[in-house]
């Protein structure tokens, strides 16, 4: 549906700029100082095609710049000064395009002074320019308000996603099954290793404190996530033994970048849930950074030791995908190859 709308918008822009090119050519030929005996020679399909190509080149270039500014700097569509600046630049390009179209027409007709515009030609050039400016301005204003509506819709989606994240944190991410296992482990440690039980309790407390602090956040730093996931893995290590290990290969400059909260917890929990982890089959979870198509990715990778009778619902990864789409407009990448399960999460650098 979205591709269909984009295709329709592109065809509409082609039609609009083509109509502006034909309109400009017709009036500049018939109502400026071009001799009458040359006017019919200029009303040919080849000349009209040239005008259409010229105006589409300029018009689509302006549209591309407009879209790039909006995509790269969301504040552009909220800043009136930037909007006015772009409107002035667009007006300048339209004026220059009309002028060079007139110069080209006069040059084709053998005018001795193609770059000089008489008073009659200047009046007509101004009228054509103002008409085109009005049409282009209406198009830009329409696009401007369309983007405001889109930003409002995205904000509402983010608010709804934040609510869902709160419930998921309490109901699913750290579910009662995890708490039940943790309390059973704690009871055993109190009996056989009191000192370790104290450390276990502190880590469990820190984990729930972090979960509660994340409920109103859309992004957290990777450094915070790593501190949290070390404590989370420690709880599993107490229960499973030293056969579970975290291998962190992230460079330090990535720690200040951001990802959605509880990303690493969800991915680590998936590893524990769906794989056999034992002294005979130890599990190493690798975390490192990758760069693909000018985008930095946080990668979580593990060998596959599938548990029998444990079916994957895909809900956890789908939730993570939706949150990334809403927050940073990028999907996660999931790969299953060479007996390794790999998930790549886009990294958000808030200083770019």
Automatic annotation (TrEMBL):
Domain of life of the source: Bacteria
Q: Where is the Signal transduction histidine kinase internal region domain?
A: 166-242
Which residues span the membrane? Answer: 12-31, 43-62, 82-102, 122-145
One function term, GO molecular function aspect: kinase activity
**Cross-referenced InterPro entries, in alphabetical order?**
Bact_2-comp_sensor_kinase, Sig_transdc_His_kin_internal
Fetch the Pfam families from UniProt. Answer: His_kinase (PF06580)
Q: Which UniProt keywords apply?
A: Kinase, Membrane, Transferase, Transmembrane, Transmembrane helix
Classification via PANTHER family: SENSOR HISTIDINE KINASE YPDA
Q: What is this protein called?
A: Histidine kinase
The record lists the lineage as: Bacteria, Pseudomonadati, Bacteroidota, Bacteroidia, Bacteroidales
């Amino acid at each position: 549906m979205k591709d269909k709308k984009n295709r329709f918008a592109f065809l509409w822009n082609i039609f609009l700029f083509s109509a502006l090119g034909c309109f400009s050519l017709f009036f500049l030929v018939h109502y400026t100082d071009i001799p009458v005996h040359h006017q019919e020679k200029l009303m040919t399909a080849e000349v009209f095609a040239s005008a259409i190509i010229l105006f589409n080149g300029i018009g689509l270039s302006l549209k591309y710049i407009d879209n790039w500014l909006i995509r790269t700097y969301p504040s552009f569509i909220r800043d009136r000064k930037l909007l006015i600046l772009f409107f002035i630049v667009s007006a300048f390009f339209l004026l220059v395009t009309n002028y060079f179209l007139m110069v080209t027409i006069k040059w084709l007709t053998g005018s001795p002074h193609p770059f000089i515009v008489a008073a009659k030609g200047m009046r007509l050039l101004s009228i054509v320019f103002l008409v085109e400016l009005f049409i282009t301005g209406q198009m830009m204003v329409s696009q401007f308000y369309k983007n405001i509506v889109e930003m409002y819709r995205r904000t509402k989606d983010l608010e709804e996603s934040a609510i869902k994240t709160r419930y998921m944190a309490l109901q699913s991410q750290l579910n009662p099954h995890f708490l039940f296992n943790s309390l059973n482990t704690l009871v055993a440690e109190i009996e056989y290793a009191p000192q370790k039980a104290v450390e276990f309790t502190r880590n469990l407390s820190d984990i729930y404190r972090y979960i509660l602090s994340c409920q109103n956040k859309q992004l957290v730093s990777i450094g915070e996530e790593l501190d949290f996931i070390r404590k989370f893995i420690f709880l599993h290590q107490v229960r499973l033994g030293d056969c579970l290990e975290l291998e962190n290969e992230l460079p330090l400059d990535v720690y200040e970048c951001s990802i959605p909260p509880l990303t690493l917890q969800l991915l680590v929990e998936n590893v524990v849930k769906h794989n056999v982890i034992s002294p005979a089959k130890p599990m190493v979870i690798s975390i490192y950074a990758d760069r693909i198509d000018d985008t930095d990715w946080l990668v979580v990778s593990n060998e596959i030791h599938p548990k029998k009778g444990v079916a994957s619902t895909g809900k956890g990864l789908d939730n993570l995908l939706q949150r990334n789409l809403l927050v940073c407009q990028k999907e996660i990448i999931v790969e299953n190859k060479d007996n390794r399960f790999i998930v790549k999460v886009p990294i958000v650098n808030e200083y770019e």
